[in-house]
Write a structure and sequence with these properties.
By secondary structure, the protein is an all-beta fold. It is about 0% helix and about 50% strand. It is built from no helices and 8 strands. The chain is elongated. The two termini are about 25 Å apart.
Length: about 80
Amino acid sequence: MQAINYFVVVEKIKEAPKKVGGLELTESQNSDIRYLKAKVISVGNLVEVLKEGDVVYYDKHNGHGIQWKDKLYHVLKLADIVLVE
């Protein structure tokens, strides 16, 4: 699978549950977090600032999912990525 142009294919990194007080919040219950963490799988031919394996953060409302060989990936525009670790 190869992204093209300014698109980036990422695989979401699951965050460990967080403890708040005596409660354990899973990722789906923590609605305060706007940005999700992901590993870059493929970058388009026009993307110069990212490479495969980079860890990035993106707005959870951007992009769309794609199923490839029984795994779920997300396709983002380069502009949707806000931070590179």
